[in-house]
Amino acid sequence: MALASLLFVVIAVLMAVDMTSDAGTGADRLHLTGEGLAMLASFGGVATLWRGWRAAEARAARLDVDLDLARREAEKFRADAREALQGLGAAIDKQFIRWALTPAEREVGLLLLKGLSHRETAEVRNTTEVTVRQQALMLYRKAGLRNRSDLSAFFLEDLLLPRGSAVEVAQ
Question: What is the domain extent for residue 113?
Answer without folding.
Answer: 99-159
